[in-house]
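Researcher: Quick sanity check before group meeting.
Model: Go ahead. Protein one:
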Amino acid sequence: HTEPDIVVTGGAPTLTRCKLTGGPANGVVFLDRAGGLMDGCDLQNHALCELVISGQAAPEIKDCRIHKSQHMGVWITDRARPTLTGCRILTAARVGVGISSASPTLKDCRISGHASNGVTIYNGARPVLDNCEISKNEAPDLVIWGEADPILTNCQISSGKTIGVWVRAGGLGTFNGCEITRTKLVGLQVDDGAPL
């Protein structure tokens, strides 16, 4: 089958200490203004995304381990407003966290070891990242483009294999008290047309 392991369409369930491993599609999907709490869960090794939050959903995701995705770790889109706190998002085959047209809050999260970017923010997204670690990714740790305008506070961006932060054309962003260290090539690259 190609359906997600869990789909939350509206409502506000509580998922505590669940473990979902190796499905043929997405792990958990929140849609249609869904709320609720996912606390202490382990999502790994799904063929698509471990966690998708879309359709103005606003769940609270707390202390979850999201790792070994065969595609993307977390995909947040379509005006979703979730809060992710204390999550470890590790070793996806592509991007760790993708944020498009959404306004999530990520606090005290570790996003590390992905085969592509750690975090990609685009398409007008307005996320807030507070005290997050983004590190050890094969492509740029953080990429901002397409009218996205994130706010990062006290984040540590380090040990990337290429660029720490890449603000592409059309990208914006506010950085308060952030550190960019030990990147292989460039700590911060700002392209023409990026009014950072």
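Researcher: Fine. The other one?
Model: Protein two, sequence then structure:
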Amino acid sequence: WCISSLVEKSYLVNNIKKEKLSNCALGVDFQKYDSLDKRKNSKEFNILFVGNGNPEKGVHLLLKAMLNINSSDKINLIFNGHITQYFEDIFNEYKDKLMEKGISVLVESGSPLKNYSQASLFVLPSIHESFGLVVLEAMASGLPIVASAIEGCSSVITDMHDGVLFEPKSEESLIKHIEKLLNDINLRNNLANNGL
């Protein structure tokens, strides 16, 4: 059972015969997201990350990038998930620097539905992602998306159609794409609508 081409390739590399594999991508129940407010009328710009806070998910890239974002908007960075214990000190160091810059950093656990409904933008800066189910959840929530152009994300996102893909591990590319969406409401709306 392969949830993505990345998973299929890993099986093939390990000598599993192709005819024994079945491709079956993951999906989301759109009814679960129908009741969310997709209008995003907040005066604050809320950037959402959903997942475990660790380097594999590229959280350090997002934190570093946010230090270099230039915007007059009030920005909140929301992490919906658990910050891995070995990463907490690094995370908190960046959090303090961002707070000094006027960017709020919130960490919440549990179901991300409330945060999807309050977000202005979804960012998934993963270094490795076998599929990226949270990308489909963000699309179903009516959010524009910025994600790494890695196999797991690029198998779900068509660049500049229903999301924006940035160069993996590139802080500069991530900054450029976040700022582009911060400043272009029409692009945000087009990406979000195309993702539904």
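Researcher: One line on it for the slide.
Model: The longest strand covers residues 45-50.
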